[in-house]
Design goal:
Keywords: Cell membrane, Membrane, Transmembrane, Transmembrane helix, Transport
Structural class: mainly alpha
Family: Belongs to the 4-toluene sulfonate uptake permease (TSUP) (TC 2.A.102) family.
Oligomer: single chain
InterPro entries: TM_pro_TauE-like, TSUP
Subcellular location: Cell membrane
Protein name: Probable membrane transporter protein
Helix content: over 70%
Number of strands: 0
Number of helices: 10
Distance between the termini: 20 Å
Length: about 240
């Protein structure tokens, strides 16, 4: 961590920004926050804090839309994710830090570019597509804290409208982050840092809800993806620099 009050405030600000965009667009916490958290806390602590925060945000978000969850579609996604979470944890714990940073930066960058392009992939359709997306998401979530893009691509290929995707994404986020926290553990942070993280999530939710009716969804999603792309490229660059 950067250390001291400045580093703590920076961490709180990162979580506030990630939480804001999550509530503003229904996606984006991990894409925006993970690269910055990894640079501030290091790969291991950054990922597990992102898993904890994203899980809480998804749980709160799910409370208002649980009836819209498509359980038949989500069960294979979640079961596949549970099977690959341990593999992601195993890989992350064995890679040197520069390699892990480069790996995370690459995953985020590629994922963002695929989501921005609305990629149509035949392998992400039907039951097999659900298993593939879930497996990729579980591995990516535990290894790099970013498990949402494969599910987003699955939803695109399945033709889900945004209003149906959001509660299902929250449901998946609760499950995959719970498994990831169980595999990776809870980050070792001081009480003030945990308090700042909680304040950041609450303030971000309030800001996102206020801005949501005022900001066009398409413009907001583009901004989120551009922020995520910048973070992914920065993390990739730092990893390559350290090799």
């Amino acid at each position: 961590m950067t250390g001291g009050w400045a580093g703590n405030l920076l961490l709180g600000g990162i979580i506030l920004l990630g939480s804001s965009v999550q509530w503003l667009t229904g996606m984006g916490f991990a894409l925006v926050a993970v690269p910055a958290l990894v640079l501030v806390l290091g790969p291991t602590e950054g990922v597990v804090l992102a898993n904890c925060a994203a899980g809480v945000i998804c749980l709160v978000g799910l409370a208002g839309g649980s009836r819209q969850v498509r359980l038949r579609a989500m069960v294979p996604l979640c079961v596949a994710a549970a099977c690959t979470v341990p593999a992601g944890t195993w890989v992350a714990r064995r890679l040197p830090e520069p390699v892990l940073l480069a790996f995370m930066g690459t995953l985020v960058t590629v994922a963002v570019l695929l989501v921005m392009g609305g990629a149509r992939v035949s392998a992400l359709r039907g039951g097999g597509g659900a298993v593939t997306a879930g497996a990729l998401g579980g591995f990516m979530n535990s290894a790099a804290g970013v498990g949402g893009p494969p599910v987003s691509l699955y939803a695109v290929n399945a033709g889900w409208p945004v209003r149906e995707f959001v509660p299902n994404a929250f449901f998946y986020g609760v499950v995959v982050n719970a498994f990831s926290v169980a595999a990776n553990g809870v980050p070792h942070l001081s009480t003030p840092v945990w308090l700042l993280a909680a304040i950041g999530m609450a303030a971000g939710a309030a800001i996102g809800r206020v801005l949501a009716p005022r900001v066009p969804e398409k413009r907001a999603r583009v901004l989120v993806l551009l922020l995520a792309l910048g973070g992914g490229l920065t993390t990739l660059g730092k990893g390559l620099w350290g090799l």
